[in-house]
């Protein structure tokens, strides 16, 4: 029985060693199939390592339990433990294959997620580039608008200055224009005044000339009138004297008072003298 137990223990150790070796081979084959796994996902390798350690611990515990449990013999006297170990080996092989399939599935899912991540990163990169382009474009537009705003402010300031200058120039031009109009009106008034002065001088000259002509004509008329009046007076005196002589010769017998006739003659003489005096005074004036 002791030899049987030793044989069973040896078989168990060999099974455990072969199982451990199979796990290592499985891990190596998995690494060969996925050469980029150690660089692709450190977390998966760490998880696989932890699972391997747990499996080894469980196998060690199983070996310890097998050493404690006595060897079971079937009806034919064969060691039932070896058969059980064989079944366990098959079970662990299936479990390793399932683990491998699970790992491959997880790796495929991880690769798919990584592909999606890559696509999302590319999409994010494209969106980021687009966003950066739009941002750069907006910043350029912002700078252009700021430049335009600054230019607009400068132009507004220049327009205000020009408007102020135009207002001042317009006021100055208005004053100059009003002064020019005042000068023109003054010149026009001076011209009108000179014209009226000239007309006045001409009128005065004409009036003086007409007065001189009138005075000449009046003097001539007075002279003629004086001559005529003197002639009339002489004629009257002559006629009166002739009448007195005739009456004295024809009617000497009648008493006639000649005093009235003398008065008439005296009046004629006085009137003639008065006219001469007035004419001389008018000529002096």
From TrEMBL:
Keywords: Coiled coil. Residues 1-39 are annotated as: Disordered. Residues 16-31 have a biased composition (Polar residues). It comes from the Eukaryota. Residues 128-231 form a coiled coil. This is Uncharacterized protein. It comes from Wuchereria bancrofti.
């Amino acid at each position: 029985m002791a030899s049987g137990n030793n044989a069973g223990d040896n078989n168990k150790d060999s099974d455990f060693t072969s199982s451990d070796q199979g796990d290592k081979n499985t891990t190596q084959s998995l690494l060969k199939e996925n050469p980029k796994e150690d660089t692709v996902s450190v977390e998966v390798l760490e998880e696989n390592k932890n699972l391997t350690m747990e499996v080894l611990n469980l196998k060690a515990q199983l070996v310890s339990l097998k050493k404690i449990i006595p060897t079971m013999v079937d009806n034919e006297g064969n060691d039932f433990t070896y058969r059980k170990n064989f079944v366990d080996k098959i079970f662990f092989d299936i479990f390793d294959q399932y683990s491998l399939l699970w790992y491959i599935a997880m790796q495929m899912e991880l690769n798919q997620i990584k592909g999606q991540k890559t696509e999302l990163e590319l999409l994010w990169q494209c969106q980021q580039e687009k966003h950066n382009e739009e941002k750069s474009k907006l910043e350029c537009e912002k700078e252009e608008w700021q430049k335009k705003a600054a230019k607009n402010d400068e132009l507004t300031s220049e327009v205000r200055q020009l408007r102020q200058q135009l207002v001042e120039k317009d006021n100055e031009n208005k004053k100059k224009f009003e002064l020019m109009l005042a000068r023109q009106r003054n010149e026009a008034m001076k011209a009108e005044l000179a014209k009226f002065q000239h007309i006045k001088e001409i009128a005065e000259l004409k009036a003086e000339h007409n007065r001189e002509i009138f005075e000449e004509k009046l003097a001539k008329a007075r002279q003629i009138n004086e001559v005529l009046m003197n002639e009339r007076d002489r004629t009257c005196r002559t006629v009166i004297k002739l009448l007195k002589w005739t009456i004295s010769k024809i009617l000497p017998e009648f008493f006639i008072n000649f005093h009235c006739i003398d008065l008439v003659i005296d009046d004629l003489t006085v009137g003639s003298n008065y006219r001469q005096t007035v004419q001389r005074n008018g000529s002096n004036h």
